[in-house]
Amino acid sequence: AGDPERLLADVAQGGGGAVGVATSRNGVLVSSAGALQSGVDRQIVVVSERGQERNTRFGLLPVYGVRVSPDGRRVAILTSDAPQQGHVFVAELTSGAVTRLLADSMSTRPEWLRDGKEVGYLSVPTPGLVRAQSWDRSASPRTITSRGISEVSPGPAGGYWAFRIGGGAERDIW
Q: pLDDT for 95-153, tens place per residue?
């Protein structure tokens, strides 16, 4: 209830209307500032529960996607320096420490798994392959499915997963 209040200005928005924001269960809000344009350097903005903004530059390539861990302490970041090349990093929000999650430079759409211990991602060289890697690289990557998935969202704990299969006019959600 009450009057609407602007949380952020200049939030990145894609051509289809999607905005570059992510939230965690404990209320941390992270956004990509600026227009989603190829080759444009974007920063990550962390907003506290009190609305205090903190701009972060983790010394990465242009940021194309960001996902907040379930505990709000880390973010999975997708960067790229060329078409069909995705680099996934994990950044600690308190210390600013950045770790490259995957060595292959061929991954996209990082998503935190429900327990916050792993980051799921799509493999670019093997379309439809969904894998997961522990955020601290303490275990080897594992395959979740190879069913032709285009996008994945691991819903709430104890609940469902949503998958998008196909592309173009053939887009099914399971």
A: 888 889 987 778 888 999 988 999 988 887 777 788 899 999 999 999 988 777 777 77
Nearest to 132 by CA among 123, 124, 121: 121
Give CA–CA dist 87/162, Å, rounded. 23
Block residue for tokens 């998935």: 149
Question: What pLDDT score does 16 carry?
Answer: 47
Cα–Cα distance for residue pair 39/112, rounded to 1 Å: 26
**More confident of the two residues 47 and 88:** 88
Give the pLDDT of residue 42.
59
d(Cα 122, Cα 165) in Å, to the nearest integer? 12
Question: Tokens 């996209």 appear where?
Answer: 108
CB atoms closer than 10 angstroms to residue 81: 12
Residues near 174 by beta carbon (within 8 Å), at least 6 away in sequence: 162, 163, 164, 165
The span from the CA of 128 to the CA of 145, in Å, is 8
Q: Are 164 and 173 in contact (CB under 8 A)?
A: yes
Residue type at 148? G
